[in-house]
Amino acid sequence: MADIKEPSSQVPSLDRDCTTLSRHVLQQLQSFGPDAQDLSAIMNRIALAAKLISRRLSRAGLLEGVLGFTGEVNVQGESVKKMDVYANEVFISVFKQSGLVCRLASEEMDKPYYIPENCPIGRYTLLYDPIDGSSNLDINLNLGSIFAIRQQEGNDEDGEALDLLQNGRKQIAAGYVLYGPSTMLVYSIGKGVHSFTLDPSLGEFILSSENITTPTHGSIYSVNEGNFWQWDESIRDYIRYVHRHEGYTARYGGALVGDFHRILFQGGVFLYPGTLKKPEGKLRLLYETAPLAFLMEQAGGRASTGTQDILDVVPDKIHARSPLIIGSTEDVAMVESFIHERAREEALKAQPSAVR
Ligand code: P6P
Fold it and tell me: Do 230 and 215 touch, CB atoms closer than 8 A?
């Protein structure tokens, strides 16, 4: 009888096709204990949510009730798209009866959603933006979902979820789904950043890149220059610099996940600074900037408000916003240098003339 060698030596792609998300999490944790199994199962549920959303997006133009607005306005004061509601419901549905996640904090919900049957068991909280960049939906451009996992602290008797108002270093996992030409899931549990690509023929996310690292510098700067009139002078200084020096190129898709994904892989910097209308910036901390900051730091990059690491920011409310400067270490540092220089000049101006 032929001796059976290690299957992967026979069919190398077989082992890769078997490296599903849940298996990868267990490999990362090097454990099959209950906590590892829980985290693996949570990631698997997130993958199911991603598949359900991807399926609906792929047929958005063909199905009734997918495109367009509901006529409602969400807690952010933004018009709600039907896809926002659907995607939010998907995450709730995949975690019900799972015993895994007690609370869901979403961009689309004013307060966290409790899944009482899970609370005595699962003490995890999922924070998520179910569909980010929904304005791209009607024009068939990329969108994303962003998520973070935290462990609940205390029993949250008053239902205010105050334990969530802690800095981003409390995240135990974070990631996003990019609904593009292919559907990709990128995640980290604090042991590097890894990407998976949905194989529709298998209905599985299969490992595509492990230990993704962001270059220390990149040529791309990604920002909505239409806000130039609203920016602090320091940000204008940075933009004038890249306009006047060779070696820079602008890329902006208007959907955070796609713009971030480009920087994660190719380097450079994405900025959404504070503006006159939104001094704290437009992006939300707990389920947008903090999860992406977690990933970027794991990939060897940086994420800053301009004056503070994103992961050190403590929110005062669940839907708190934060400015975001994220990407290659050298490029984030360059943006910060313009901010620091302006602050130094302002401080000098404020001093009594005799002291200058
Ligand atoms: P602006 C999408 O609405 C979003 O929340 C992010 O996905 C994106 O980065 C940002 O807003 C784009 O905002 O003001 O450039 O259209």
Answer: no
